[in-house]
Recover the amino acids of this structure.
């Protein structure tokens, strides 16, 4: 028949031509962007190794879901409250651990993240355990529908249902990227970079290193919470399994792809990552579904290794900085 | 005897009030007292040298009085205010600024950013200032930028203004760190071997600049130095440390002829490599003996 089917492996490019595919990729990539902006702030610009970002995302998503479904709080009102709750958690994690050496901090934040996930799994009265929580997004659906009817009124006859979420996640992601990029250029951002370079030098010049690191971590936790909202809205439920440390590791992969210490690279890294990750699903291979998902991680690893070898600064990082950092 | 006289002279006869005083400062590492009951004063507006053999505890003493190490005993005051127990950033903000023996250039920041960072009173360094007082932040930034340019000019770093500090040579880093410390508007500057690795011409310029800062702005200096020519010709007072404690304190000519200092440090004639290694060996064997005799007491 067609030549493609004669080959043992082939790619059906049909999927790449569909808007639905790109919207699906786009929503997740936007979520990852917001998530990894927090990591960029911590790792790329402050030099603190936050391996607990998935935990902060869980606090944000669960707080929102519980506030809406259990406490009857309005969805929109639940968002700032959930962000505040997550920031308090950021503070609680940071206060004892930010005085530790960076490698200990990485372990402490990872442990905190797992503790949070295991709590969501086991505190069943509050979180419904592995069943998860549904039905927190009716107010968002209303907004989504009014955006759809708006789109119809301007001439898009049959808008994709995912389009409003896609639009909102990217507006938020780009605004946050812009805000952080601006903030990095202020004297405040300069102090963060000084801490990344040499904490003792900054302290000797009168900078309260601990206070700045705490601010950095708490801001990152807020970004984690916002990413958590979009994750929940996309899935339409929250379950503990979504908040495995894998999510944080993917965030780090995105940082490396886009380049350390570059906020705009985060979005590009997230889009590339998610395109490859989803695109691999359409590789026609004589293997099972499970093997395909394992293969996705293997290929991702290979891409990262290749990047380390040929472009260690990532797509948008600065080579000079990479060399000087050693 | 002569060193006791020098000590008496140092604390008693000095007519200028001390800007800094340390008494019985102790710092232990395991069983070793790296700083062992060190007592000294620094006269306001003086250029005081801190000398002593390798391992005498000079750098450790700096680390203790600037808050980087927690003291195991003693007191220290700057302008009458307690410093031990305060965190380094507060001590720096009091006006007591130090440099490091092993330079700490902020490698992936430009030379200019290294300088601007050090300037105090920048409202844009707090998030509230960034949001509420962007104008004041920009104004302060312009103010300190011109001061930074002047200082970079003094130390021949102008050409490197926009380069990453990590690309600088060892001597250039030393100069950058010194200019950066000056940006912090210190009233008391503690320099740990500022001349090490700097070429003689720039070294002289550095010394001239210290003199000028002292006479124009009233900055007080305490600097650790191994080059005896510099110490003898450019300091008003010399404090000598050995085995963690202060063994002498006086004017340069008094120190030069102090038998205790000669035994512990200057012995062997010229203070170059050979003399240092021999003098470093001598106090260490004394030190071990000292601890053995101390234990029964
Ligand atoms: N962090 C540390 N941990 C353990 N021991 C230390 C530490 N810092 C210094 N010491 C020890 O304390 C003693 C004093 O060291 P210090 O660096 O203060 O000497 P120094 O007078 O500055 O010497 P130099 O002229 O060589 O710079 C040395 O015996 C050193 O080994
Ligand atoms: Mg030293």
């Amino acid at each position: 028949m067609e030549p493609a089917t004669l080959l043992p492996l082939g790619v059906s490019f049909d999927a790449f031509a569909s808007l639905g595919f790109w919207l699906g990729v786009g929503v997740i990539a936007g979520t990852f962007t917001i998530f990894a902006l927090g990591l960029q702030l911590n790792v790329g610009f402050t030099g603190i190794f936050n391996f607990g970002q998935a935990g902060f995302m869980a606090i944000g998503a669960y707080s929102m879901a519980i506030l809406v479904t259990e406490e009857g709080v309005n969805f929109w009102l639940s968002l700032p409250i959930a962000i505040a709750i997550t920031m308090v958690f950021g503070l609680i994690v940071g206060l004892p651990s930010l005085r530790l050496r960076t490698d200990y901090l990485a372990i402490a934040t990872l442990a905190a993240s797992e503790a949070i996930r295991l709590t969501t799994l086991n505190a069943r009265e509050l979180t419904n355990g592995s069943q998860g929580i549904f039905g927190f997004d009716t107010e968002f659906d209303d907004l989504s529908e009014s955006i759809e009817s708006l789109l119809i009124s301007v001439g898009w006859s049959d808008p994709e249902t995912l389009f409003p979420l896609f639009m909102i996640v990217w507006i938020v992601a780009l605004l946050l990227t812009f805000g952080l990029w601006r903030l990095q250029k202020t004297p405040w951002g300069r102090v963060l970079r000084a801490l990344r370079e040499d904490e003792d030098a900054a302290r000797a010049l009168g900078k309260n290193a601990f206070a700045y690191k705490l601010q950095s971590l708490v801001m990152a936790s807020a970004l984690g919470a916002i990413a958590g909202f979009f994750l929940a809205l996309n899935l339409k439920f929250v379950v503990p399994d979504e908040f495995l440390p894998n999510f944080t590791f993917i965030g780090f992969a995105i940082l490396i792809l886009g380049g350390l210490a570059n906020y705009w690279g985060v979005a590009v890294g997230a889009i590339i990552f998610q395109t490859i990750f989803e695109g691999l699903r359409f590789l026609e291979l004589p293997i099972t579904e499970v093997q395909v998902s394992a293969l996705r991680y293997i290929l991702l690893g290979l891409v990262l290794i290749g990047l380390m070898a040929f472009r260690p600064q990532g797509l948008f990082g600065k080579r000079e900085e990479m060399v000087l950092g050693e | 005897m002569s060193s006791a006289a020098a000590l008496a002279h140092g604390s008693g006869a000095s007519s200028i009030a001390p800007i800094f005083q340390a008494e019985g400062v102790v710092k232990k590492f395991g069983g070793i007292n790296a700083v062992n009951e060190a007592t000294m004063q620094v006269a306001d507006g003086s250029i005081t040298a801190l000398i002593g053999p390798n391992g005498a505890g000079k750098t450790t003493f700096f680390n203790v009085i600037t808050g980087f190490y927690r003291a195991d005993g003693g007191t220290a005051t700057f302008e009458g205010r307690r410093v031990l127990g305060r965190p380094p950033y507060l001590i720096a903000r009091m006006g007591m600024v130090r440099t490091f023996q092993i330079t700490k250039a902020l490698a992936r920041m430009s030379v200019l950013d290294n300088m601007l960072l050090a300037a105090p009173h920048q409202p844009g360094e707090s998030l509230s200032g960034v949001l509420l007082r962007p104008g004041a932040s920009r104004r302060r930034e312009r103010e300190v930028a011109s001061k930074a340019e002047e200082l970079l000019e003094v130390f021949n770093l102008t050409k490197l203004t926009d380069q990453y500090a990590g690309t600088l040579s060892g001597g250039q880093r030393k100069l950058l760190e010194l200019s950066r410390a000056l940006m912090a508007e210190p009233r008391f500057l503690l320099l740990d071997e500022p001349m090490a690795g700097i070429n003689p011409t720039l070294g002289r310029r550095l010394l001239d600049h210290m003199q000028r800062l002292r006479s124009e702005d009233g900055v007080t200096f305490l600097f650790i130095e191994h080059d005896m020519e510099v110490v003898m010709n450019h300091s008003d007072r010399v404090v000598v440390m050995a085995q963690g404690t202060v063994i002498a304190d006086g004017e340069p000519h008094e120190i030069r002829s102090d038998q205790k200092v000669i035994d512990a440090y200057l012995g062997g004639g010229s203070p170059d490599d050979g003399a240092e290694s021999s003098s470093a060996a001598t106090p260490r064997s004394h030190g071990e003996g000292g601890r053995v005799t101390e234990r029964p007491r």
Remarks:
- Chain B has two domains: 3-105+185-294, 107-167.
